TrEMBL record:
Source organism phylogeny: Bacteria, Pseudomonadati, Bacteroidota, Sphingobacteriia, Sphingobacteriales
GO molecular function: heptose 7-phosphate kinase activity; heptose-1-phosphate adenylyltransferase activity; phosphotransferase activity, alcohol group as acceptor
Keyword line: Kinase, Transferase
Ranges for domain Carbohydrate kinase PfkB: 12-307
Residue ranges the record marks as coiled coil: none
Keyword Transferase appears in the UniProt entry: yes
GO cellular component: cytosol
Domain of life: Bacteria
Protein name: Carbohydrate kinase PfkB domain-containing protein
């Protein structure tokens, strides 16, 4: 299996723009049912916070050794302070958080017993940011565009990436020969027209194309539809246990999964888009980049929660194949 070696003297400079959030994990034990209602009583043994969404993409970039940066928005609330604390721990190339007084910072609380998730509680708002805030995000990118090799647009449909903003970002990046890699939960991908690469999963590709993917024929049809709608150069579709598909230059190619154990798929899509961007920014071919992303995904799905993969872990995985 291939080994991946990247030049240490030139770190890929990749900026993530999109919806940042906090993943809040509460862990505990349970041996009784509440007398108040037929629910389990969890004795909390610990809790921790971690960056999610666009923040998890940034974590993956940093784990690979990239010079990752981030531009996002958050609320003017207590959770926003947690976001700043977690970002500071990562020591990114730079980060900009635009305050939106009209929204809450997204936080997702997961309660688990013996690594079994009992419930998830979400606090979030899902409306698009105003054009004024979008302009602030754009200006932050514009000021740094000469220091960036690629931009990842991480769209969790929480409102950071309005059509107005996306159009301005893609035009700016194309004008400076900066690649744009899109990972979007949004059904209508037309707002990402002229992006470099679009990376949906199988379900997202089906919804975006309106084609039910059941075999390679419908997979290729869906990819072609997405490529036509977005005018992108490449479509990469993650297929879970069936691996990863590449549609480029009118042709479909598939690579089998490298996962041995699947424990938790949380954040695997973030790992894939980060890995693709990192590999492409380091001048790997799209085929090699998908091999790298496949390997990185195999590492993280064997871990608990939103995890990351390092270059050593990836190369060790391929050594053992």
């Amino acid at each position: 299996m291939p080994q991946f070696n990247f030049p240490e003297h030139k770190k890929a400079r990749i900026c993530v723009i999109g919806d940042i959030m906090i993943d809040h994990y509460i862990n505990g034990s349970c041996d009784r049912i509440s007398p108040e209602a037929p629910v389990q009583v969890v004795d909390v043994t610990g809790e921790f916070y971690s960056l999610g969404g666009a923040g998890n993409v940034l974590k993956n970039l940093q784990a690979f050794g990239a010079q990752g940066s981030l531009i996002s928005l958050n609320g003017n609330d207590d959770t926003s302070a947690i976001v700043v604390d977690e970002l500071e721990k990562l020591n990114p190339g730079f980060y900009e958080l635009i305050k939106d007084n009209n929204r809450r910072t997204t936080i997702k609380t997961r309660v688990s017993v013996n690594r079994h998730q009992l419930i998830r509680l979400d606090k979030e708002d899902k409306f698009y940011c105003s054009d004024e805030i979008a302009d602030e995000i754009y200006q932050s990118l514009e000021a740094k565009i000469m220091e960036i090799d690629a931009v990842i647009l991480s769209d969790y449909c929480k409102g950071a990436l309005s059509s107005y903003l996306v159009d301005k970002i893609i035009k700016l990046c194309n004008g400076h020969n900066v690649s744009t890699i899109v990972d979007s939960k949004y059904k209508d991908l037309s707002k990402y027209r002229n992006a470099t690469l679009i990376k949906p999963n199988k379900k997202e590709a089906s919804l975006a194309s309106g084609i039910n993917i059941v075999d390679d024929v419908t997979l290729e049809q869906a990819c072609k539809k997405i490529a036509d709608v977005t005018a992108c150069k490449t479509v990469v579709v993650t297929l879970s246990e069936d691996g990863i598909a590449i549609y480029s230059n009118g042709k479909l190619d598939k690579k089998p999964t490298k996962a041995l154990d699947v424990f938790d798929v949380t954040g695997a899509g973030d790992t894939v888009v980060a890995a693709l961007s990192f590999a492409l920014a380091n001048s790997l071919s799209i085929s090699q980049a998908c091999d790298f992303a496949n390997s990185a995904a195999a590492i993280v799905v064997a871990k608990f929660g939103s995890a990351v993969a390092t270059l050593d872990e990836i190369n060790n995985l391929n050594n053992n194949k």
